[in-house]
Amino acid sequence: MSDLMRPIPFDNFIDWIFAEYKKYGTIFGIREEKFYRNESGACAEMFNEKLATPIGPAAGPNSQLCQNIVAAYLTGSRFVELKTVQKMDGEDLRKCVPRPCINAQDEGYNVEWSTELTVPEALDEYVKAWVALHVVGCELGLSTAAGGAEFNRDFIFNMSVGYDLDGIKSEKIDGFIEGLKDASQTAVFRDAIAYLGANVGRFKNVDAAFVSSISPNVCSSITLSTLHGCPPTEIERIARYLLDEKKLHTYIKCNPTLLGYEYARSTLDAMGYGYLEFDDHHFRHDLQYSDAVVMLRGLQDFAKERGLAFGVKITNTFPVKIGNNELPGEQMYMSGRALYPLSLTVAQRLSKDFGGKLPISYSGGADAFNIADLYSAGINPITVCTTILKPGGYSRLTQLACELEGQQLPNQVDVSALELLVGGMRSNRNHLKSARPVASRKTDSKLGVWDCFKAPCKNGGCPIEQQIPEYLKLVADGKNNEAFEVIAVDNASPAITGVICNHACQSKCTRLDYDTPLAIRAIKREAVLAEQDKFIAKLSAPAVRAEKRVAVVGAGPGGVAAALFLRRNGVDVTVFEKRERPYGIVSYVIPEFRISREMIEKDYELAVKTGVKFEFNKEITDIAALRGDFGFVVLATGAWGKGALNLAQGEDKLVDALAFLEESKAKDCNTQLGKRVAVIGGGDVAMDCARAAKRAPGVEDVTIVYRRTKEFMPAEPEELAEAEADGVNFALLLSPVSYDGQTLTCEQMEFTARDTSGRKGVRGIGVQTALAFDTVICAVGAQVDTGVFTFNGIELNARGGVKVGSGNETSVADVYVAGDAKSGPSTIVAAIADGKAIAADILRKLGLPGDFIKKDLPQDAELLYARKGTLLQPHEGASEGCRCLTCDQLCEICVDVCPNRANIAIVVPGAGTNPRQILHVDGMCNECGNCGIFCPHSGDPYKDKLTLFWTMHDFEDSTNIGFLPLGGGKYKVRTEGKAVLEHNAGDGKLSGEMAAAIAAVQAGYPWLIRQ
Ligand SMILES: Cc1cc2nc3c(=O)[nH]c(=O)nc-3n(C[C@H](O)[C@H](O)[C@H](O)COP(=O)(O)OP(=O)(O)OC[C@H]3O[C@@H](n4cnc5c(N)ncnc54)[C@H](O)[C@@H]3O)c2cc1C
Ligand code: SF4
Ligand code: SF4
Ligand code: SF4
What is the pLDDT of residue 43? Predict the structure, then answer.
């Protein structure tokens, strides 16, 4: 592992491209079906050059290396904004850039800025890429004239320089600018042309005449990037220099700080990004809007006099404080969907002031959902970064290119169209934080060297590991009966969970990083409604195969699950329930407007028909009395104890949440609460209380009182939204102190700095607020009544909960605990998971096999590859499953998201069970960390996957498991156990997987090896 990227010589580079393409139909892992061909052949013009699509990578990680630019071109980029260069480069710059340096989990962040290569190396990379694009475009017919087959250059390279005039005038940067204006005198261009000339025989379409026609004029345009705080006079001087002396079409990158602090703060707050921390100092010190307008007008005239194009690049990234360990350091630069409202507003304001006549090159949260709107408003070109750092990677560009093909570009910016976009942006779902409320999709599993594909929805998301991709596919295929059978294998309460499961699976879904998570719960409900009754009708109780019987205490979801899974596998089970109906909290407390009796009944019927016996109105206190008849006892008694707020006065006047909800449900919401009701708490129970109170006769308003703000509420976003839709009010940053039956006195709170876990604290500010309420409901967390445990000699842990061992067994042998009784208030599916684990443990003790059978449903790999990189709106109904990426059969997210193509999916016959294994190429990686953000395991692909090294220095500088080819069939290897040894093919020193992988690279991917 090393952050040093090693540029690939041009001859190796061309070898690699065409050898990989010939053998696998891919280039740098980009599959042929994602290659973009402008079918219409229509081209726009810019800087007197042709441009087939107005899109490309923004100056940044996706345009740093030659292979990045080729990958971007293949997928449809025709406007390549080369990564910025500045005087400080190479090692000097790398020393200042902490690692990891990119985090594109949601809105993007980075702590890197200009090229990490030396400036001469960057020049070489860009020239190589320029020549390579000609060769690839010609050979593969990707850049052709309208209606023709002949190569017709349709792409533009735009250089980007920073940051001050002295630096730009320095010999190093000047050499770079001149080299890109005319590369004919550079060794890299000459060598590339000479190499191609000597090797035309290996191409079909590239001949000597074509090679000699490749223009050395790589760039005729430049984008100026300046640092925050750069004085306007300096910006203007540089722009004039670039126009006048360098004779380049010039665009100036604008900063979002042009909008002023108040606008940026209020917009980001309104859209849910209130947690972004920044103060007004950049806004005060950066170029001010009115100065910018004057300067831009002057420069526009100056450029016009010289016959050159002039415009603005909107916008640079936005500096914010690193507040939550997103990246190392103190300040990072924000991009992506949260930048969109700021960039869009800068575009709109400048367009308005210039009557639409100021050309705008755009970057700032553009993606497949908004690019057509931006383009049809006259914005062109549009470059992207954050979207292509997410799963799908470069192949997202194909969709962008197709989206714009054939669209008319107005001849100037359409001010009113931009105004409309700005008007709608605060309610544009794709840009609101609430569209992706999840912090990380990563799960706890360790990332192994081999066989890593996983579907995080089922492994890591769903506590009962439901076979989600399988049932999504079956429902999409119209096979609801099979889908329901698959669901029923792992889920004892399909109907209830189909309606009110907290669906943790959806917060791990890979589609969250594309567009919208799969509607996993709704699809389950679809299968339930279609099939559960039929399934139950066919069901009969299996024969009892064990002598020992099981008693379950409590008929909530946890108890029913343990009972059903055991009975299904041949164990006689009786459930004792103290109330008159099954399903505990779900049945007695959760409001009817959230879950109907009919759905609860379906799940009860499922258990009854499986053969579970229920005895209602039977409270169990003495377990010993049961033990004569039952070999095992499962305690699933829930958490029904009153929550405590510890008010200074008036605790006794508070109404307990569970007691209120139980009464409300029993009386069909006809409770007597007075006119004004407060609910204290910010979780799901508080939302249910507020919504139930809203329905009580005579209630005029209901207010949720919470000590933080909405964005920190633990309630599911959907539940919060439902409460808002019901008209519930919110009194935030208030902590209750006392209640006298009429007045709730609260202390006002303020946020404190984040603690080491990154969570913001709150503290009272000593100011009190008095609020009038007729009823105050306390919904701050129910308690487990541990009486039944202590009475029966069951040990508690230090936190006062039940001490459990493996399989949820308590300190008393063969006595188990499940659900809320074990963990405190939790979820239905967590209770079912406990029931499943207990059933498995008891079956093991009884020597009975469990029937938790996994469905084998292989999917067409080509279809899954085709789904990658395409953003889709959710589908209505059964076909929603067609959006599923089936991540356990095809992951390769680390391959998608690596800007440098340093992770490669290779076929390794005989290693593991996945069709492909991941190979990390050390010399192409700069440890940006992006693959680690998106890998669904807890590890980082760039550290944990099998690594191919190119030099001894890199091998020795790393601790990665991997190998260095030494030539002559010899390798230096760091094994899975981290032993370092020399290996010759067939010497038996390595694991089977390692030996197979090395042999596979040597035989199947020889272009990867450099000596
Ligand atoms: C208002 C509210 C809303 C919720 N909404 C959701 C939601 O939308 N999604 C979600 O996943 N989770 C939700 N939950 C949580 C979920 O309901 C619980 O986590 C789940 O019901 C726990 O199941 P359980 O089997 O452990 O306990 P319970 O459902 O509490 O069942 C325990 C059962 O044991 C019985 N019992 C207790 N003591 C004895 C005894 N000594 N002898 C015999 N019987 C006894 C009780 O009568 C009860 O029937 C919500 C909880 C509340 C309070
Ligand atoms: S895309 Fe499909 S398989 Fe992947 S996490 Fe989402 S539901 Fe699961
Ligand atoms: S392998 Fe990972 S860390 Fe390395 S450059 Fe690629 S995404 Fe970044
Ligand atoms: S992201 Fe890469 S390393 Fe992680 S599971 Fe997917 S294929 Fe494996």
Answer: 87
CA 13–ligand 3 middle distance (angstroms) = 19
User: 935 in ligand 4 pocket by Cβ < 6 Å?
Assistant: yes
Residue 510: the pLDDT is: 98
**Distance in angstroms (rounded) separating the CA atoms of residues 434 and 413:** 31
| Residue 895 identity | V
Q: List the residue whose alpha carbon is closest to atom 5 of ligand 3.
A: 925
Q: How many CB atoms lie within 10 A of CB 539?
A: 16
Ligand 4 lined by 892 (C-beta under 6 Å): yes
How far is residue 867's CA from residue 889's CA, in Å, rounded to a whole number?
13
pLDDT number for residue 1001: 97
- Specify the residue with its C-alpha closest to ligand 2, atom 4: 887
Instruction: Give tens-digit pLDDT for 469-500.
Output: 999 999 999 999 999 999 999 999 999 999 99
Grouping H, G, I as helix, E, B as strand and the rest as coil, residue 79 is strand
DSSP annotation of 742 reads S
Q: Which ligand is nearest to the CA of 475?
A: 2
469 lines ligand 2 (CB under 6 A): yes
Determine the Cα–Cα distance for residues 273 and 409; give it in Å rounded to an integer: 33
Which is it for strands 903-907 and 916-921: parallel, antiparallel or unpaired? antiparallel
Evaluate the omega torsion of the peptide bond into residue 315 and state whether it is cis, within 30 degrees of 0: yes
Tokens describing residue 319: 């500096």
Ligand 4 atom closest to the CA of 905, numbered from 1: 7
Q: How far is CA 501 from CA 5, 231, 672, in A?
A: 47, 56, 30
Q: Is the CB of 556 under 6 A from ligand 1?
A: yes
Q: Contact, 810 vs 804, CB < 8 A? A: yes
Any atom of ligand 1 within 6 Å of the Cβ of 827? yes
CA separation (Å) from 925 to 338, 451, 1001?
27, 22, 18
**What pTM did the predictor assign?**
0.96
Quick count: other Cβ atoms within 10 Å of Cβ 437? 16
CA of 394 to the centre of ligand 3 (A): 14
Query: What residue ranges of the chain have pLDDT lower than 50?
Result: none
Angle at 242 between CA 236 and CA 248, to 5 degrees: 135
Q: What is the pLDDT of residue 1?
A: 52
Using CA atoms, how far apart are residues 705 and 439, in angstroms rounded to an integer? 25
**Confidence (pLDDT) at 931:** 98
- Evaluate: CB of 930 within 6 angstroms of ligand 3: yes
Six token digits for residue 640? 């029904």
